Amino acid sequence: MRTERFQFTGTEGQQLAATLDLPDDAPTAYALFAHCFTCGMNVLAAKRIASALAEKGIAVLRFDFTGIGASEGEFANSTFSSNVADLVRAADHLRETRKAPAILIGHSLGGAAVLAAAGQIPEAKAVVTIAAPSDPAHVTGMFKDRIEDIRTLGKVEVSLAGRPFHIKREFLDDIAEHNLAAHIAKLHKALLILHSPTDNTVGIDNATHIFVAARHPKSFVSLAGADHLLNQKRDAEYVAHVVAAWVERYLDAEPQAVPASNGPRLVQVQETRQSKLQQLVSIGPHRLTADEPVSVGGQDSGPNPYEFLLAGLGACTSMTMRMYADRKSLPLERVTVTLKHSKIHAEDCEACETKVGMLDRIERVIAIEGDLDAEQRSKLMEIADKCPVHRTLTSEIHIVTRPAE
């Protein structure tokens, strides 16, 4: 097993300390691990589970939340929402540097956090909770005798696991607003719930609530004899063994990576099932989200298909003009292409061959910056119409559709 330590930028700009446990060979998948409330990424359970999973071929990223361990920021300024946002940032970092996590694992409050974050990490295929509360507000039971003081004074020091932490009123307000059951109901990912029936910190009834709220595929495994923090090494290793075996079924469904080549890369579009219309667009190592505006049934979480089309034409236009300018040593500083798609009546288009019905119209406005004379600007505008995507859109296109084998 190999271990890499680094930092990445959290949602609020702080540097968050992280560790990536890697198998000796190429990982079969990447997992993102969220630790328990106030624990830190080096708590025994997190270290042991990550190490055991790495031995089974799964790379695991664990990190300290804001104000915990080696991460910057003040714990008092963190909330459940900020933890969820930092989990999404950690997934972004994996996506940008390695590969997006296919597995999300959360211990205790970290389990609630991965359930809340899962909808924002479309590549995740499987979610694992360990001793997780069904309601994030459950954590306030650890300092229930100080809640009134926190609401009255705004900020109070409490003792958690023998260590002092400051809790603010904002933390209470934020955690009370989360409806975790709604996130669980629309998870649309495989779910594995691990919980000890003798957990004295987060009762087994929480596992029941999560299981009932979730849709299939869902599984429950009892951690008989284990305590809440999985202090026994054998319990943590058992969790890793179960997770590695269970998740194989769902990793097989992952889109296969497109091998690097000099030819055109395949574009794969797959429903995320996080909303009615949201799509995950995979192009080699790149991941994009497509959606529709709220007004037509989407969530506006990404560009709509026509906007992707316009983006392709705009990018091609700008690139073609740049390559020409560089080849001719023209003092072109920047090109900005603004595009708009609409439908028009054919009879309103004098230059169009079609005279009946509706036509698609793309308006393209090109701004050229640089110390160029009129002739050079005119030539660049002429070159814009020679971009390959422009030519594709204005020539006959043959689309062949067949069912997947």
Radius of gyration: 26 Å
CATH topology assignment of the largest domain: Rossmann fold
The overall number of domains is 3
Strand content: 25-35%
Protein architecture, described:
The protein is built from 11 helices and 15 strands. It is of the alpha/beta class and 405 residues long. It folds into 3 domains: 2-140 and 178-251, Alpha/Beta hydrolase fold, catalytic domain (Rossmann fold, 3-Layer(aba) Sandwich); 268-297, no CATH class; 303-405, K homology (KH) domain (GMP Synthetase, Chain A, domain 3), CATH 3.30.300. Strands 1-2-4-3-5-6-9-10 form an 8-stranded mixed β-sheet, with helices on both faces. A 3-stranded antiparallel β-sheet has the order 11-12-13, with no helix packed on it. Strands 7-8 form a two-stranded antiparallel sheet. α1 packs across α8, α2 crosses α3 (109-117) and α9 (305-327) packs across α10.
What's this, in brief?
The chain is of the alpha/beta class. It has 11 helices and 15 strands.
